[in-house]
Amino acid sequence: MKNKFWWVLLVVFFFIGVHVYAAPTLQTLTLQYDGQVHVYQSRPITLQIDGKIISTGAMPAIIVDGRTLVPAREVFESLGAAVGWNENTKEITILSKEQFITLQIGNKAAIVGDKTQTMEVEPKLIQNQAEKMTKTMIPFRFVAEILGYEVRWDPQNYVIDAIPPQPVIPEEPKTPVEQKPNQELPTETPRDSEPSNTKQPVDPKEPLKDTIEWNKEEKGVTLPLSEPIERQEHPVVNIHTIQRVTTEQQEDSIFIGADGPISYFESHTWENKLIIDISNGNMKLKNLDQVSQNHPLIQKLAASQYQENPKITRIVFDLKNAQTKYHIGFSKDRKSITVQFFPNEIYHVAMQSIGEEDVLYIKGTWGPELEVSRLSNPDRLVIDLPYTMNPFGGKEEGIKGKYVQSIRTSQFTPNTARLVLDLQGQPDYSIQKQGESGIILCLTSPTYQHMEYSNGKSVQLKLKKDPKNPMPLSQVVHEDHYNAQKYILTLPKDYTSFYGTGIMKINDGILDRIEIKNNDKQQTQFIFNQKRITAYQVTEDEAYIYITLLRPKEVYKQIVVIDAGHGGSDPGAGANGLNEKSLNLDISKRLWKHLEQDPAIKVYMTRMEDTYPTLQQRCDLANELDTDLFISVHNNAAANTKVKGTEVLYFPDGIQYENGLTGKGLAQILYQHLVDQLGTHRRGVIPRDDLYVLKYTKMPAVILEIGFITNAEDAAQLKTESFREQAAQAVYQGILDVFQKYPTGR
Question: Left (φ > 0), alpha (ψ -120 to 50) or beta: where does 463 sit?
């Protein structure tokens, strides 16, 4: 009996041991980032360079939003790159022999050379609370691939291996070698710009031609076979999820999710719109603009409750190209619908110089959309074809064009084909469709003159001075229409006889274009249509005027964003003959006047009229500017009309910013100035973690609740201009107090 007991015990221990040995080891970390504490639990990631394990120090590699983040300095200095950190701008610089990369904490835009590319996850400052250490964590795959490494992921063992680029010994055959059908074509290393030192010179022994033509066999797109959809009867379900899904293979789909089985769907197209009607669907979708933002194929998404009885949810995809190929299908449990998109493939590229024009012709399986960017030093046009495969590989050929000196191709990213035109000068260009599958880019002489745009280390428009019409810079009028993404410089009179008129197309991540035209007073204007809010400095020498574009923090010592709460279709609270949105705007504009007259402070407003910027747009403005303070002006309301007084709300994250200021500290200073000046009932400084503009702004931020419009005493005061002016003055004095106690250091 005793022997039997020991045998049973031995078998139990054997299976327990096998189970423990088979289970993957999990690491649990307590991490603080994005203003919150996260309990991170995952298998440990092993990081290798060409098979050799590298150490990440006290902070291991982690996965955030499906992408691996690693400590910047520990990892990329081991790859031979120099890593720098700018505390003021929160920027990381990575310098290798071939590339110069700039990343910024909380910003998905990466600058590589002089071109901007969007990452899937932004760099973060992450504190490992067990080690009491904060590290700069950046996306490994993105940076490594820019540096030329091939990144391989082993999901079974959680191993990432970066394979360094192999040196290539160039060969120059005497005669062109025809590419065999089964021979793999070389591709360019993905990068954000085309620096001049990477450009391969065209063989001078080969005579230049005025026509280039490249062809590949047209394959077309094979769509999955669509099975008939069975109509079923199910209870009403909530259509609650819509999100973009991109795999490591860069396959692009839109996932539509419900909380139960869907009875049926049908789809149809109208012009460039794909329309999906979902039976038994109750529309609960939100943030559709975030799904379509930066999508290569979708211009806009919209959804509505198309029908109430029976319930039908309608989703409309506004496609950038009506020829886009896709397949729509159910999941097995019918709880989701997937719209899968299929990439385009170009099979014909031709370049020809015709008289005073150079013409580029591209043909694909469906008409490609072009994203054209102008780069300088040397002058180039970079032509990206989103969601397009390039079968030509890294091909380059010189041409005897009017403007184009050579053309080259690459597969810039797994789903973006790229063509680069190396130019002489800065010609204008136009784009037009040819049929359903072709597109033409025509380069011509611009209608503007005596100006040159550069976007290398500095971004600048250089204007040659008109020798016959001197222009005093003191008479140039600056207008900053930042909410419309425009900056206007108005010259004192008509200079179009010297500068001409027209549109300089740029699209470089900073500017979309520059318009040169006269206003109705016949004064010449330079209208800068911006991709991001920018500050402008105008200087001169004897021969030229220089218009330099800078980030606002490079120009202004102190920046404040004032947000007038509610607005437009959102009136806010209303009582005692008062409308909250109007009160908020009135006090905000009074505050704006005080700040605008202070030369030490640059102020931006989320709205100046009765409009409604979304909560996300208000946060985006503040975050894009990286403003020093965000102040949202509101007034309060309560069911109990006896409730009255002033309160200031802040987000209780406890983060101390670089100058020592916290959200609570900002709230306390402004609150004290308000109640001392207004004499209102003191309701205090209140932490709130559920308010959007406090939660999603990345700087000290507060909401000022000046008074209760539902209370007769507060309402009577709010109706007077003197009280509203006092409120504005109190906040202005509070802002001065904040900057005196917590200087920005710029």
Answer: beta
CA distance 307 to 316: 14
Which residue numbers in the chain have pLDDT < 70?
Answer: 1-24, 88, 97-98, 113-114, 166-209, 218-227, 247-251, 368
Note whether 406 and 398 are within 8 A (CB). yes
Tens of pLDDT, residue by residue over 674-688, are 999 999 999 999 999
**Token pair in block for residue 614:** 């979304």
pLDDT of the residue at 665:
96
Q: Which distant-in-sequence residues (6+ apart) come within 8 Å of 119 by Cβ? A: 103, 108, 109, 110, 139, 142
Residues 6+ apart with CB under 8 A from 79: 49, 96, 144, 147, 149, 162, 164
How many angstroms separate the CA atoms of 470 and 448, rounded?
Answer: 19
CA distance 504 to 516: 8
> Comparing C-alpha atoms, which of 466, 549, 451 is closest to residue 501?
451
Give the tokens for residue 583.
Answer: 């009160």
For residues 600 and 557, what is the distance between their CA atoms, to the nearest angstrom? 7
Measuring CA to CA, which residue among 495, 503, 564, 547 is closest to residue 523?
495
Q: Which residues of 518-542 are buried (b: 16+ CB within 10 A; e: fewer)?
A: beeeeebbbbbbbbbbbbbeeeeee
Looking only at the bridges linking them, the beta strands covering 629-636 and 558-564 are parallel
Structural domains of the chain, ranges and CATH numbers in brackets:
43-163 (3.30.457.10), 237-342 (2.60.40.3500), 355-444 (2.60.40.3500), 451-549 (2.60.40), 556-741 (3.40.630.40)
Q: What is the 3-state secondary structure (H, E, C) of 603-618?
A: EEECCCCCCCCCHHHH
Q: Give strand ranges (E) for 583-687.
A: 601-605, 629-636, 646-650, 682-687
Q: What is the pTM of this model?
A: 0.64
